[in-house]
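From the pipeline queue, job 12 of 40. The input is one protein chain; the requested action is below.

Action: predict structure.
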Amino acid sequence: MTEFVVCAAVLLVAMVPIGMVAWRATVLDAVIAYEAASSIAVIELLLLPEGFGRPAEFEFPVLVAVLLLSSSLVFVHAFERWL
């Protein structure tokens, strides 16, 4: 295993407390946890192709980053009345 795969595994473990915050916290804290989790997920999706030596799969994390930005704006707009 390369260092990139080890870092991806550590980031995966770091998602557990963020998931607990998103599950149990207030709506505003859950939105912040969602943003943090989406950023970590994109970084993890970038680390895994590098760790496994598959440079052709770098397009997917870039697409996910763009889609997560717009989806978070839609999510905040939908829950605007509870914030």
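Job complete. The chain has three helices and no strands.
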